[in-house]
């Protein structure tokens, strides 16, 4: 029964072969994988092949019929091996036929387009064997000594006998060089991965950024072929030799250890022009002058000339000259790291730049601190640009020495543009009513304002003051009086102080503009350490919030005094002078006068002459005016006592007009601050 089923199956397969024109031997392997071996042993395949199957026992082999014409293939224990053996025999016959016809057949010339030419060139220059698949055109044998031995002749394949025109030859050479460059990049990448232990991504990024070094390796590898020991060597071996001799991989590892990015590594290696040892020497020299971290790479890349081509003696001479003119040795790394253009200057140019500033009246100490504060001032700007900016600063009424002192104090002025920064700011100050003298004072007191962005920093603060009701002229006076106002943060400093005055200090909305205009320095005070303690002290004296607001509106400096200086004055007012608190509320400026030099001496004179004045009339005048008032008061009392005048004719404090009171802005007020 089993045999009948097997015969029926093979009959069905033979019918399929006839229908689809398929050789039965091609399906034999498939049949062997799905059919039991016992069925295959008894199959009669003689009608579709030229071989027969026999048993594999020794007895059957001994009794083999030698008269049989067809070759005998003996079964070897497994039916699957039979199909493999058949296919192997067919491949051998096919290869034999190809070898016999290869000598007589010469492929005709064929036209190959540019893209296929490039592919063929790349095949001829590959560094390793590409994986082959069954049916591949260029099968590579495992016994090939070189890739070229298993590839067809490129010139025969292209059908070229060397008679092409020159343009085609140049095109082929250019493509060959490009492919050779790709091969060299692959060799460099392989060296980074295998010897440097870098990741494939990092190695690719570095290789893509060292194009000039790739060309250097190609040229040196081609030059090595002239040497006898490399005359028979392949290009790959010579390229690896050049890479190893240049210490490329250790240098990349060393640069990465010093926190160089692969972008900077690529640029620095290209700058070396193949002399990679100069990179390590230059970095070691930069460390001797205290250049640290990322600024080592900045010193390489931002120098206008190639510093790798300069000798160490030239660089040492520049450093020693700067050190002799006030730039300390431990500052040198900071200066060079932020102004690497110095390393590309000749010694004569460095001397001329240093003399340019020394002739403005600077001493060596001022010059050294100026260079340390802003290293770009020494090497970033041209002489014409610096001369133009100095001439513009002199238009404010400054002398050459004044400009020198100004640059020594704020050298960042040299980095500001006249057209983009200074002229718009000057026009804006004119709009606020600031005179030329006022601009000069702002420049001298706070020169950083001339380096500040007008639209982002200054204009928003001016608009804030305008919204408070302060006129433009008053705003201009505020800026001239207290230029630091424009350097304070609007949202972290100015607005919180204004809110504190309105909500905690009792200042009304109609008086807030007046308070800020009279004392803009109030906006620079700290709420926690200055304004809040002062406010609490006045409240502790019995002054109410609304009264304190009126006192601040009358005398805004009240909140800026030191509380320790206020206590003895208050005790003297209450205990010695026996004055009520209302007198202090009416005249808060009392705290601005010196206790030892004005309050006590004048109170003593009043006691000796038995006269009395309000605090305003007692203190807010000069010594001569005070003596005149005391004298008039004494004479009036004597006439009254003599009966010459009635009591109503006694001069009183109210008879003295406010116009007669001279408000003193003497240094006595300022010494009580802080």
TrEMBL record:
GO biological process: DNA-templated transcription termination
Keyword presence, Nucleus: no
The entry's keywords: Transcription, Transcription regulation, Transcription termination, Transit peptide
Biased composition (Acidic residues): 655-674
GO cellular component, one term: cytoplasm
InterPro entries assigned: MTERF, MTERF_sf
Region (Disordered): 641-674
Any GO molecular function: nucleic acid binding
One Pfam family in the UniProt entry: mTERF
Keyword Iron-sulfur: no
SMART domains with a match to the protein in the record: Mterf
PANTHER family named in the record: CGI-12 PROTEIN-RELATED, TRANSCRIPTION TERMINATION FACTOR MTERF2, CHLOROPLASTIC
Family: Belongs to the mTERF family.
Protein name, entry field: Transcription termination factor MTERF2, chloroplastic
Organism, as annotated: Microthlaspi erraticum
């Amino acid at each position: 029964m089993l045999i009948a089923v097997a015969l029926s199956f093979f009959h069905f397969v033979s019918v399929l072969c006839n229908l689809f024109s398929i050789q039965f031997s091609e399906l034999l392997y498939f049949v062997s994988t799905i059919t039991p071996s016992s069925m295959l042993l008894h199959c009669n395949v003689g009608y579709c092949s030229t071989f027969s199957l026999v048993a594999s026992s020794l007895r059957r082999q001994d009794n083999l019929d030698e008269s049989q014409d067809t070759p005998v293939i003996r079964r070897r224990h497994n039916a699957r091996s039979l199909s493999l053996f058949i296919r192997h025999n067919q491949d051998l016959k096919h290869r034999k036929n190809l070898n016999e016809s290869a000598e007589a057949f010469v492929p005709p010339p064929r036209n190959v387009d540019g893209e296929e030419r490039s592919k063929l060139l790349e095949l001829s220059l590959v560094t390793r064997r590409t994986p082959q698949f069954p049916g591949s055109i260029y099968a590579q044998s495992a016994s090939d000594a070189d890739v070229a031995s298993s590839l067809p002749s490129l010139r025969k394949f292209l059908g070229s006998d060397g008679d092409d025109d020159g343009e085609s030859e140049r095109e082929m050479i250019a493509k060959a060089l490009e492919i050779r460059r790709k091969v060299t990049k692959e060799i460099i990448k392989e060296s980074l991965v295998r010897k440097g232990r870098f990741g494939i991504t990092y190695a690719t990024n570095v290789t893509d950024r060292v194009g000039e070094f790739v060309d250097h390796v190609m040229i040196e590898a081609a030059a090595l072929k002239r040497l006898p020991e490399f005359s028979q060597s392949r290009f790959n071996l010579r390229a690896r030799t050049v890479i190893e001799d240049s210490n490329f991989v250790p240098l990349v590892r060393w640069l990465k250890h010093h926190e160089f990015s692969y972008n900077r590594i690529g640029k620095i290696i290209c700058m070396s022009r193949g002399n990679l040892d100069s990179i390590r020497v230059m970095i070691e020299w930069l460390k001797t002058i205290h250049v640290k971290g990322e600024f080592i790479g900045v010193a390489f890349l931002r120098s206008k000339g190639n510093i790798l081509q300069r000798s160490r003696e030239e660089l040492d001479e520049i450093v020693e000259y700067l050190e002799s003119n006030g730039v300390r040795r431990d500052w040198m790394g900071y200066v060079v790291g932020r102004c690497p253009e110095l390393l590309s200057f000749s010694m004569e140019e460095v001397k001329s730049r240093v003399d340019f500033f020394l002739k403005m009246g600077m001493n060596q100490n001022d010059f050294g601190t100026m260079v340390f504060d802003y290293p770009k001032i020494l090497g970033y700007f041209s002489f014409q640009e610096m001369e133009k900016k100095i001439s513009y600063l002199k238009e404010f009424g400054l002398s050459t020495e004044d400009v020198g002192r100004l640059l020594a104090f704020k050298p960042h002025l040299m980095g500001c543009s006249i057209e983009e920064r200074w002229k718009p700011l000057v026009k804006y100050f004119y709009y606020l009513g600031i005179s030329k003298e006022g601009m000069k004072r702002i420049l001298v007191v706070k020169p950083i304002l001339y380096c500040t962005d007008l639209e982002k920093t200054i204009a928003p603060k001016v608009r804030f003051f305008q919204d408070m009701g302060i006129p433009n002229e008053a705003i201009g006076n505020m800026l001239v009086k207290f230029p630091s106002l424009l350097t304070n943060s609007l949202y972290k400093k100015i607005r919180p102080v204004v809110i504190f005055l309105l909500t905690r200090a009792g200042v009304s909305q109609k008086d807030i503009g007046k308070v800020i205009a009279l004392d803009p320095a109030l906006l620079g005070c700290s709420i926690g350490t200055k304004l809040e303690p002062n406010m609490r002290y006045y409240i502790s004296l019995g002054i109410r919030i609304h009264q304190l607001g009126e006192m601040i509106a009358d005398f805004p400096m009240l909140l800026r005094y030191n509380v320790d200086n206020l206590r003895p004055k208050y005790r003297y007012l209450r205990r010695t002078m026996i004055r009520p608190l209302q007198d202090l509320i009416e005249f808060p400026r009392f705290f601005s006068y010196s206790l030892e030099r004005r309050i006590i001496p004048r109170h003593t004179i009043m006691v000796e002459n038995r006269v009395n004045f309000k605090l305003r009339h007692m203190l807010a005048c000069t010594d001569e005016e005070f003596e005149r008032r005391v004298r008039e008061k004494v004479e009036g009392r004597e006439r009254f006592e003599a009966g010459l005048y009635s009591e109503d004719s006694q001069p009183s404090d109210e008879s003295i007009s406010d116009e007669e009171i001279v408000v003193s802005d003497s240094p006595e007020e300022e010494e009580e601050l802080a």
